Structure formats: structure tokens, C-alpha cells
Model the fold of this input.
Amino acid sequence: MIRDLVYRIRALVRRTAMESELDEELRVHYERQVEKLLAAGVGGREARRQARLLVGGVEQVKEECREAWGVELVENAFRDVRYSLRVLRKAPGFTVVAVLTLALGIGANTAIFSVIDSVLLSPPPYAEPEQLVAMKQNDSLQNVIDIERQTKTFAVGGGVTVSQMDYTGGVEPVEVHAAFVSAGLLETLGVAPMLGRWLSREEDVKGGPHHMVVTHHFWREFLNSDPQVLGKSVVLNGESYTVIGVMPPGFDLPEDHANVFVSLWVGYPEAAPWRGVHFMRTYWRLKPGVTVKQAQADLTGIATRLATEYADTEGKREKTIVPLHEWLVGDVRPALLVLFGAVGLVLLIACANFAGLLTARAIARRQEFVIRASLGAGRSRLIRQTLTESAVLALLGGAGGLALAKWGTSLLVSLKPEELERFSGIHFDARLFVFVFGISLLTGAMFGLIPALGVARTNTVESLKESGRSVTSGRFAQGLRNGLVIAEFALALILLVGAGLLIKGFARLQSVNPGFTAKNLMTMHLQLPTGRYAEIPRQTEFRRQLLERLNALPGVDAALISDLPLSGSFLNHRMVIDGRAPVPVGAEPYVQTLSVMGDYFRVMQIPVVAGRRLTERDREGQPPVAVVSEEMVRKFFPHEDPIGARIDWARKNEPHRWMTIVGVVADVKHTGLNEPGEAAVYAPFAQMDEAWRRWMSVAVRTQGAAPGLAAEMKRQVWAVDRQIPVTDARSMEDLMRVSVARHRFNMLLLGLFAALALVLAAVGIYGTMAYRVGQRRHEIGILMALGAQRRDVWRLVMSDGARLAGIGIGIGVLGAMGLTWVMRSLLFEISATDPATFLVMTGVLAVAGMLACWVPAWRAMRVDPMVALRYE
Done:
């Protein structure tokens, strides 16, 4: 091989030297022709032109030689491809297994890469996204205004909070997502409306006009894509809004979905003037040349000044910014990277199988290569043909992988958790095709080189002297196949342990007590419109009528609460305790606050630990009362009885309206099953001075399955007020499933990849052992002829396979410790080195390996010594 390579290098050098000499001769010839023409009296320009024509003929010959050489290369390549296809067609079993093996590995990688490309790599769909930052903490409109006035590093900023508004222009009332915004939001994101304009700063004031901008989806679905929509009125929450703009298709907020955009001053005037209402997500655009670090320093200075001036609301509040892209993908990045690493391991296992198949194929065709070499085929020609065959197989596997990836991506989108909305934007583009076929060609080149090197090592003379039975793989090929099987087992164990840890953590997560009973519990969400329910008495009357109607249904117990458990939606208030030492203004502790009506704790089956539940007697005009959670007691009343203690919300320059604690209930998971319980205060709707808390969830418990209950609940709501939309009607068990959807998603995918790795590893060791039994058939015949029993042969094969599996498992244990350390943030109440998981998954892989060795061992036992001794 080396001599052949040296020969080709010398030929290339000679050809290059000849071309250089030809170029020099042409230059000298050209100069001589110019001199002759000048001496004959031809002008300088005309002399040079005629000289070029004379020399051009020689140059054309040279160019034609080069083109012929290139055509020869192309023809040779096509000839190799045609021959490869013909050879592969004659071995359909080998071709199908090799292509399918690669397709599985490449398809899984491509599907995950498409997700990572869409979610992690693609920048947010806004102008100059590298200049956009998001504030980690929610903020108030008044703070947004002050930051805009005082900043030296932000070009513009804006805030948004999404709530619900009623739209009654259709067949039945529906709830639309309304974004209450500041005027600078769209300028910050750098997106212009498709029609009309955005809200101006002059309109974004107290008492401003009822203008709104709608999304393309709302314009299409609710306004019939009316091109003359600008200036028309739409009724939301019983009030008329004028459409002044339509956003382009695909536009959405960075973290929320919205259908319409209105000024916060207009859509939610109760909250706009309050600095302590920190419910807006804020985004900022850096000035050109400003770094995030510089902007953070500027923002910290502003926050310090605000904390000094408004200690009651801003005293200990931090303000931290991060690049928008990082903020959007930060919570899903670890899981996606772990999954990408997992499918990378699957691809390596598939490639190891592919290399093993190619090696076995090359060994089986060794005599063919020897004969072709003896007939004059050079080593480079044989290597090129071998690489071409592997490249063809790899490209076929890549094409199959692309088809599997298309299906797999659809599966990923269908399994995705609801909060991973960016998954919906997954698409196939040119980069994905480059990724797929880049992997395919790289796989073919890398793993096709292994059998190609084996071909190059073949000694033609010695091989022709060998008999058929002595044409074996040799130490190099045998060691290579053993190494590939060991690698497959090590990689498979890493994936199995990772999947086992996620499965065990998920099982523990599902066994967590949420603090209530979810079975036979139906929920729905309502929001009272501002115009008709601005006052507390009207709100209270609606709630009472609705509860009376729902409780009148056969076998139904109903209650109302402001925010459902596990919804992740709740409000925090600062709290003070009567009789305690005064706390500095702005340093009061936060607690969750939930308003309820009806026998809420009985309906939800939340245990009462001490005292009593809230009852119908706890209504307006009666002394204010409250029920608190156990965590509240542990945190603020660790060594005393909380019953009878008085609490209130921290308010500046207002007399306290103390609430007496009358009961203690078990902790309820409001943010997630994997989150600890928090201090919570439950108070009656009717006793709370919260006219702005117009949203509510209805919880209805039945004695058993109740088909059609959701529709009946809607009818009861509309019997009280026909214009109130009902949304999110679903069982509490569904809500619990949604709360653990991300953990289930990670577990399912990693488990799927681990199962795929297990199958590929088992196929790998099966192929290796089956091949070795075939190669040692003569040896096995001799052993049996000398007296070896069938069980001895079975033990010989099984021990050989066990040795390879054992080495791979040992290496895999070390690798699994590294992987699980990386994925520890995805685990719930389980150690990344959980011994039981490691032991179980090691046993699973060992059993799979032994089962894969069993068939070759069984075949070895059935070898006929007489036939084996005659085998050539």
C-alpha cells in the first residue's frame, strides 16, 4: 500500500512539473511571437493579440488534457458506485441490517438535533436578538417607567402581563389571552405590525383611548381576515376597543401567548399605578456596544435608588438581567443536552455495529479481494471500492434515518410538555439535511476505513496459498470486533443507568402526596369582566349563585378558589403578625394568598390539622378570619399555637384589618410535586377587599365518574350570566399529569434510547458470537472428535461472550457515573449513584448479553464433528 501511495505521489509531482515546464514554454513562445510580429511592423496591441491566438491553441490542448483527467475521475467514481450497488443487491440480508442499523442511530440523532436546533440554537424571532435581555424578576409598570428614565445602557424597554378577557362576538363567549403592555414593548422586540400601527406612548396613559392591536391568528379566526379591520370595534370584557393594528403571522411574546394587546393603563387600570404590583415580565434592548455586564451594573444602581426611595415595595428586591435567548432556553437546556448526549451514544453503538458488519463482510470477501489483486487490481483500487461501498451504505442509512427522523420529530412534538411551546416550531431545513448527510458520509468514511485497512494488509501470495478454512479474520480483525462489542456494552449500560435513574425518580415523584385528593375532581376557570363586575358585592352575588346551582346537581360538592393547586398560579403578599416586633418597611415576609368560597377544604379533601375549616358563616360583615398551612405554622409559629393569632397584609399608611387564624390545614403543592410546600393563607372571598381578584377556579367533586359534567358546569355558569366564558375544564388528575409532563417526557425519551441501545448491543454481541462460532467450526469439530461434550462447547461459547460483556459492563459502570453526575439536576429525591439502579441495570444488560449468546452457543452444540472436519 505504501509503495503504491509513493508511486502515485511521484506521478502527481511529475505531472505538476510537466505542467510547470509547459507553462514556461508557452510564456517563452508567446514572447518570441510578439518580437517577430513587432519586427514585421505590426503594432504593439495587434502583435500581442495575434501572439495570444497562436499560443491559445497549445493552451487549449493543455486544458483538454485536464478535462479528460477530471472526466476519468468522475467515470471511475460512478463505476465504483454502480459496482457497489450491484454487490449490495446480491447480499440483501447484510444490506438491510446495515442500513437499518445506521438509520436507527442517525434517525434518533436527527430528531433530537431538529429539536435542539429549533429550541437551543435558533435565536428568538426578533430584530437583532443579541441585543435583547430579559429581567429574571417580574416588575411593576412604575418601575419600568423609572428604569427607562434613568438608564444609560438600555435603548428601550417594555413590560407585559397576560390575563384573560371575555370575547362575546361569537356563537358562545370565549376567553382570549390579553396582553396588558407598556408602549415600549414592541419597539423593544423590533417587530412592526402587518397592518396599522402599535400603541403610542401618548395613548399609554391613565384614561387613554380604548385601542388594541390583535395577532394574526385572532384577526383570521375572529375577525374573518377583514382587510378593512382598522378602526372597527371589538367588545372585550363588555367594553368596546378599537383595532389599530394587526401583527404579522407567527408573532408571539417571548414567554407567553396572547391574542390581543392593550395598554395596561386601559385594560387593567387598578394595577397600573401601584409600584408594588410586580407582575410584568420586562424585556430590554441594549444600546449598541453595551455589554450585559455594563447594563447589569447600570440596573443595579437604579435598583438601589428605587429601594431607597420606595423601601416599602422595593426594599429588598433584586433586578437581574440575562440575554433573552439564554433566559428562554435555560430551563430546558440541561434536559435537551442530556438527551442529545444519549442519542449520540446510540449513534456510536449503531456505528460500532456497522463497523462490525463491514469487517465481517470484508473478511468473508477476502478471497475475492485476493483474486482481484492477483489479476492486477492495486491496493488503492481495492480500498477505494471498499470505501465506496461503505459510503453508499451510509448514505442509504442517512436517507432512512431522515425518514425515521421525520416520524420521530412528530412523535416528539406530540409527547412534549405543554410548557415547551417552542417545540411547536420544529422544522426541517437545509441545515438539518447537511447534518444528516454529513453524519452519513463521516460514518461511511470512518467506519468503512476499518475493513479497507484490513484489505490493504492482505498478502496476495500468502492468501492464495491458504485453504478456505484457513481464511480467518486474523488477530487484528478479531480484536477489532471484540473491542466494538465491549464499547457497545459500555455505552448501552450508560444509557440504561440514566434511564433507570429517571424512571425511579419519576416513580417517587408520582408517589408524592399533593395535599389533596385528585380523583373524581373536575375543575374549570372563570374570569368576571371588569365592566359588569367592578364591585365586590356584585362579584360575591355571582359566586354564591353559581355555588348554589352547582351544589344542587345530584352527587356534586362544589367550591371556589382563586388559584388551583399545581397550576403554578398564585399571588404572594407581604404579611405582618399582630403583637410581633415591628419589621422594617419592605422587609416583611411573603406568603401565598388564596381566596376561597364554599366548603373548599372538604371538597378538595385537604386535611384539617387544627382548628376548623372556613364556613358559610365567614362572610361579609363578620370578623375577618383565615386558615393557614402547616408550613406557615412551622415558619412563623414554631413553638406556639397559631389558633387565635392575628395576621394582616403589610400596607403603608393604612390601619390594619386583622384576620384571626381559625384553622390549620395540610400543605398543598401549588407550584409542583417536586417543590416543597410553602406558607399559605386561605381567606374568604367575601371578606377580602380585593375587587381586582375577579378570576376564580371552580372545583367540583363527584361520587364517581360523571360523563358530561364539564358541559353541565358550563350550563350552570351561563344560567347565571350568559356572557361569562368557561375555560380549562378538565379533571384534577389531568392537571396532575400536566404538572409532571416534563419529567415524563425526559423519562420516556431516555428510556426509549436506552431500549434501542440495549437491542443494538445485543445484536452486536449476537453477530460477533455467531461469526466466531462459524469461524471456529473446524476447531469445535476437532474438540468434539477428541471427546468434548456438547455442554463443554456451550460453556466455551457462553464464557467467551460473558467475558466480552463483563469487560464492557465494567467500563460502562465508570462511564455511567460520569453521565449521571451531569444529569443530577433532572433527578428527584434520588442519588446520581444509586446502587440499586446500577445493580438492576447491570443485571438487565448482562441477561440481554447472555440471551444474545445463547443462539450461537446452541448452534455450536449442534455441530457434527464429521461435517466440521471435512469443512473447507
Notes: The longest strand covers residues 154-167. Residues 86 and 288 are 61 Å apart (CA to CA). Residues 1-22, 57-62, 64-71, 467-473 have pLDDT under 50 and may be disordered.
